[in-house]
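User: Could you walk me through two proteins back to back? I'd like the raw sequence and the structure tokens for each, with a short line separating them so I can tell where one ends and the next begins.

Assistant: Of course. Protein one, sequence then structure:
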Amino acid sequence: MNLTSTPAKATLKEKIGYGLGDFSSSMFWKIFSYYLPIFYSDVFGLKAQHAALLLLVTKLYDAISDPVMGIICDRTHTKWGKYRPYLLWIALPFALVGTLSFFTPDWGYTAKHVYAYVMYILMMTVYTAINVPYGAMLGVVTADPREKSVFSSYRMFFAYIGSFVAMGIFAIFEKSIAGKPNAAGKIMNGVGDANPATWTFVVAIVAVMCFLLFLGCFALTRERVQQDEKEKGSASVGSDLKALLGNGPWWLLLGGGVGILLFNSIRGGSAAYYFANILGASPILTCAVYLMIGEIAQMLGVLLAVPVSDRIGKKGTFISVLCVVTVLSVIVWFLPATSGGFWGLVVLQVLICIAIGINSPMLWSMFADVADYSELKHGTASTGLIFSSSSMAQKFGGALGAFLLMQVLAWSGYDASLASQAPGTLTAIKALMSIVPAAGSLLGLVCLLCYPLGGAKMKEIQSQLEIKRNNDNE
């Protein structure tokens, strides 16, 4: 594949601009990951098992839509580039559909159930349409492998700022969202106690911010690495898919990504239930503060990402993180439901989130490495298609985590209308905050131990690619 590049060094403005994109998408992603399960069960009024099936079934659609979007944006040619224009085109639908996903219509149960399916599928469609191209931009904003890690670090740092802001907004509106305590002192004890209209209003505030941030990302970034015109569209869809399916490092990195996202989604989604039912605290305010502490810790982790990966490599960083979060998550199981146990949980939250923050930029940067590997081995980088797999891993891991969360709650007899849950249900909620997410990170660890693209291998690939590109351009 012939490549030509505009000047290699990207500016600080471009790095900040790139970060604004995940500032936006992360706000909605965290709201959907952490609050959609409890919104569906305690506000919207879906049964836990129905909410679980919804979150899983829609991922079958995503398994098709993500690669399709990757193929589409790989073949998009505009004056703004291949991937960047989607930030402009999809920003408004992203904001509108996200808001409507948290709207509770005054309909019967079946009609509301259908509405939830339609809106969630639409939300995942627009999320795919804007985030697959956004992620693929990492492969074309610079040709320098180390600078890709720097761009990825800016991305994740701003992503955690976005998550922090979103959690802060939810904390501000906590009383309106959560409703009034019942006679037993429980908050959000079934449909009707919380205020559905306020949920929609709060999400709409976030949506306006998301819209403006994506426009800022579009305005401040540029695609520095571009295909020669004569090469555009020359590779068939079939050859791209064949190259992807035959890409062993892609499969292993996909498994690692699903594993860490299972860890994050199960642990994050169960936090509201843990605070409400194990600790007897507000599932909105206390959980939001807890999650905001985590976002700050993850920002600290992002600052450490490049120095740590420079020392032990991207693969070594990912493996180390998976080991650390697995052990720390299991420790949560042994914490007592006391004030001391609460502060122990906070300390573990800080340590786990620092580790997650260190790893987050590495995952995206490693997908860029997989694209370079594909270009060398198969003659086509298929950047959009490969980065669509990272989006697919993110959504599949998040949805599978949400499905497991809701399914475990259903199996254990969780009933939102009860003032207190049965002992078996409480045990299940405790496991969802500790042992179950640890199983997800162990899955990722197994995959990463087999991942072949370490630092030495990538230096070899970059050297061969440079020779190949130079020969192609002669």
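----
Protein two, same layout:
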Amino acid sequence: MDARYQRLAEVYAEAVIKASAVRDLFARAGLSPRDINGVEQLSKLPVTKKEALLAMQRENPPFGGFLAADMSQVARIYCSPGPILEPAVRGEDVHGFRHAFKASGIGPGDIVLNTWSYHMVPAGLLFDEGLQALGATVIPSGVGNTELQAQLILELGVTAICASTGFFVALAEHIESTGKKLPEDWKVKVAFLGGEFGDWMGKRRRLEERYRLRTSSAYATADLGIIAFEDGGEGYLSHPDRIVQICDPVSGQPLPAGEPGEIVVTQLYPGWPMIRFGTGDVAFALESFEDGTARRISALQGRVGQAVKAREIFVYPRQIEEVKIAVAGIQAIQCVVSRPASREEIALEVELASGADAERVGAAAKEAFQRFSRLRADHFRVVAAGSIKPDAPLVVDRKDV
């Protein structure tokens, strides 16, 4: 048996005794933890959505029947928007951040400025724990106070910064505004950054070149901690303590490698046994284990609710962003799915940049859209500047209009 499923059987044999919600999930599927010896049996269990977890916690406070530990084993309780309560069970690197930081090049002797919030939400403390587990020294700065944080970077010889991409840029630019020359006047070698949509990887490459450092990131949620992390390869490597599936967001069944779907995660750590938890985020598998579960996943394509189905295939916001990044001359873009007759049609509506050739942009945009989505666009339309508002959705469903 795959070692992951052997561990699953051990963790969930205890969980069905201590956690009523987990016990109910197995009962509904007519299974016991010892029956789960592969992905086929695992996929018979229902997917638990974040919205369902919130409802379960309200019906059965405080943790919805998912806590499989005594309260004496709970070190902290975090509160995420909803609010959803997440117990942090005592143990070494339960949330998996140590793996991610080690892969980024952070280790003993590093001085790390951690700018994520330490209040109520998990981010700050979870980053802190992972960094300390590696032997790094942490400055728990939290958010805000750019001037003081910039001063700390220089005076304490900070070698790594954990921050949102935007706040990292703000810190670097503030230091430069004081007359310092970067990278010569600081010791930062690693920036562990929060993800953004748009040309985020391009932005990271420009930061690496400008400041001569390494950028890194991970995919994590408040409910589970690190799910996958960058290791130098393409996309994100699945954490060894998680079983990651890419599933149809409606049926919950696994999808073939390369097809976008909801990230569904099974936790292989006792205490907070989330099994087949639907994150609501969308990605596709870049590499798979022999059983079809994801060994490596792509960058996020969007959220489940942001997708629009066209000809039985979901179109995601990230795919439209990729078209904009790939094709020069696009100022703004929107994908519109409609059904004027019996057939669904896809139109790419584009605001052109100044001087761009519409025919060239149209041909390139259609080619890129087919490459990223596996669907053919029926129409390419140039729209007036300002027609697509900055906060407009990238994919629009007009099938019922």
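Residues 3-18 form the longest helix (16 residues).

Let me know if you want the two compared in more detail.
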